[in-house]
Specification:
Blueprint: H1 2-14, H2 16-35, H3 39-68, H4 70-77, H5 83-113, H6 121-148, H7 152-180, H8 187-195, H9 198-210, H10 217-226, H11 229-257
Helix pairs in contact: 1-5, 2-3, 2-5, 3-5, 3-6, 3-7, 3-9, 5-6, 5-11, 6-7, 6-9, 6-11, 8-10, 9-11
């Protein structure tokens, strides 16, 4: 599995996508630092970009890589190698390469700016950690969808639909539920709904750290009410890690039954 991780990792690094993602985050980070009046505002702006762009990039690139390497995967399956090693190795290699490009794109401008000398260093670290976790979550979701659907076009369509559900539809449904049932106690329901969406978890986690109450919304306010800042972050991190673990187990169960 280590060899497959290394091969996939360096294969992704050599591709044009690694450079595109790196430049995208470099330019955005420089722009936010240049136009923002404070580091906290720049970090907040980066967070908003991350929670929408990273899921899209991670999901689409993972799906593209899987479908483009199907012949190579079939060759590996014909060898005396465990299926779990093949697919977990590819998934980890893809996720690590995307994470590295995002990491470099965010860290280089902020380090040059001198964030390590200020009080915002831990807020920035929190944003970076959330970005990496989102990368692993949506890479695994996309990889599972691609495994289940053999047709490339249908697979891409399902990945895009899943992204739309998490980024747009989910929040709209939550808002409608809160408006329709506003006369009922919905605090516990809103916490559960937040835990079921990794993008919302990442947003609330970062806002709890930054303590920007105005931008938290109803779910963020409820999260802060039931958990203090530290407890809320622990719960959100644990929930996002559960997303990664659950998707990894799903991947292993799918590849055992999948007929290649």
């Amino acid at each position: 599995m280590n060899k497959i991780i290394k091969y996939t990792f360096f294969d992704m690094i050599r591709s044009k996508w690694f450079l595109i993602i790196l430049l995208f985050f470099l330019i955005n980070a420089w722009g936010m630092l240049y136009f923002s009046t404070s580091l906290s505002k720049a970090i907040l702006s980066i967070m908003h970009i991350n929670i929408f762009v990273i899921p899209i990039l991670s999901a689409l690139l993972s799906s593209i890589y899987f479908y483009n390497s199907r012949n190579f995967i079939e060759l590996l399956i014909s060898q005396p190698i465990k299926r779990s090693s093949i697919f977990l190795g590819q998934y980890l290699g893809i996720s690590l390469s995307i994470s590295l490009s995002v990491l470099l794109g965010l860290i280089i401008p902020f380090m040059i700016y001198g964030i390590y000398n200020g009080n915002e260093i831990w807020n920035f670290v929190n944003v970076v950690i959330n970005a990496i976790i989102l990368t692993f979550i949506f890479s695994s979701i996309s990889y599972n969808i691609s495994l289940l659907i053999n047709d490339r076009i249908k697979g891409f369509g399902m990945v895009i639909l899943t992204l739309l559900i998490f980024t747009v539809v989910y929040d709209a449904v939550v808002l409608i539920l809160l408006l329709v049932f506003k006369d009922y106690p919905l605090e516990k329901l809103s916490i559960i709904l937040t835990l079921l969406n990794p993008i919302d978890l990442s947003r609330v986690n970062t806002l709890l750290k930054l303590d920007v109450s105005v931008l938290m919304g109803y779910t963020g306010a409820v999260f802060k009410k039931h958990f203090n800042t530290f407890e809320g972050q622990i719960v959100s991190y644990a929930s996002m890690l559960c997303w990664i673990i659950l998707n990894a187990f799903t991947l292993l169960s799918v590849v055992k039954k999948k007929d290649f």
